[in-house]
TrEMBL record:
Gene3D superfamilies membership: MFS general substrate transporter like domains
Organism, scientific name: Sulfodiicoccus acidiphilus
SUPFAM superfamilies to which the protein is assigned, alphabetical: MFS general substrate transporter (SSF103473)
Keyword Acyltransferase: no
Record protein name field: MFS transporter
Keywords: Membrane, Transmembrane, Transmembrane helix
Annotated TM spans: 7-25, 37-55, 67-84, 96-114, 121-139, 145-164, 176-196, 208-228, 235-253, 259-278, 290-309, 315-334
Domain of life: Archaea
InterPro entries, sorted: MFS_trans_sf
Claim: Iron-sulfur is one of the keywords in the record: no
Length: 343
């Protein structure tokens, strides 16, 4: 894959993530109740599911390049409009549509990366989640205000012409196996739970920005290291996963930001294994993005359940169960992956 194509697939996850997560830093400025705030953060994850389901039909109608272009432009426009919106109902509707555009864009990017069969390219794409968070943190450090941060999402529009080259599927519609979706949920659970981190740190009086930047910055190398470790030492990977699970539970119980860095360091990188495991379970390249975005329903459930049942207890329990499940999954014998984990 050429350098410019690698850049485009990486941006296909980075920019949507930036638009999706940037509001996490300014929730207090919206004066929402706790339940409204978590709904605001979570509702795009429902849209992601819709976007992942319609991306294949959309590509057949307008083509991959135009589908990617349209979804990126939509992300920028919706982000800017939300910065002008005062109605909570309309704001939630716009956030839902952001999720739809996210689902389309990232499904195309993941399919393009998976079709290369290269774990480094896939790691670069999946690292877009960390890059997007880092970009949102930097933008927040520069502007500090919700409306200006929302307008920063307009960056998606000039970057939209850097379209992704993704092969068109020969099949009419590719549905990933159910178990591949469950595997993706377990891999993405840290990303879902970490939506709560900025708010929790603020409640403890911690300086959010440096801790979030340290956490997500340290996670970037793990998107490349964990697939390599998966190919070399399942025991080593299992030990690392256990450490991340313990540190995640410790963070939600104590709200100590040092545990946040440790949890994020390896926890986010687990998502780089989701495409490999989904492929081992029989998902085709064009179906892997669907599996990842269908698993995103957890991004709706984890924060909302935490707000209703108690953040400490719920987030800790879900994190513990997910990491135990993922430890079992990575040690189970799977079928040969379409992604060459040795490249």
């Amino acid at each position: 894959m050429k350098v410019n194509h690698r850049l485009s697939v990486a941006l296909g996850y980075t920019i949507p993530t930036f638009v999706l997560v940037a509001p996490s830093f300014v929730l207090n400025q919206l004066h929402l109740t706790q339940w409204e705030a978590f709904t605001f953060l979570s509702i795009p994850f429902t849209g992601r599911v819709i976007g992942s389901m319609i991306y294949q039909p959309l590509n057949r109608v307008v083509g991959v390049r135009k589908g990617y272009l349209l979804s990126m432009v939509a992300l920028g426009a919706l982000s800017a409009v939300s910065g002008l919106q005062q109605s909570l109902v309309l704001l939630l509707a716009e956030r839902f549509l952001v999720g739809v555009a996210f689902g389309v864009t990232t499904s195309i990017a993941v399919a393009a990366a998976a079709s290369t069969g290269n774990r480094k390219v896939m790691g670069l794409v999946m690292a877009g989640w960390a890059f997007g968070w880092l970009g949102a943190a930097v933008a927040y450090s520069l502007v500090h205000f919700w409306s200006l941060l929302a307008f920063a999402g307009l960056i998606a529009i000039p970057l939209a012409p850097l379209t992704v080259e993704s092969p068109q599927s020969e099949t009419r519609y590719s549905i990933p196996p159910l178990f591949s979706i469950l595997v993706a949920f377990a891999a993405f659970e840290p990303a879902f739970a970490l939506q709560l981190a900025p708010t929790l740190l603020e409640q403890e009086g911690a300086d959010v920005l440096p801790w979030m930047m340290a956490s997500y910055g340290s996670a970037v190398p793990m998107y490349f290291a964990l697939p390599w470790l998966y190919s070399k030492s399942r025991l080593g990977l299992t030990s690392l996963v256990a450490l991340q699970g313990v540190s995640g539970v410790a963070f939600f119980v104590t709200r100590n930001p040092a545990f946040l860095v440790l949890f994020t360091f390896g926890g986010l990188g687990l998502s780089s294994l989701a495409p490999i495991l989904a492929s081992e379970l029989g998902a085709k390249p064009e179906g892997i993005g669907i599996a990842l975005n269908l698993a995103a329903l957890g991004g709706l459930g984890v924060p909302v359940a935490s707000s209703l049942l108690g953040t400490r207890q719920t987030a800790s329990l879900i994190t513990l169960v997910s990491f135990v499940a993922f430890s079992l999954i990575i040690n189970a014998k799977g079928r040969k992956s379409r992604i060459d984990i040795y490249r």
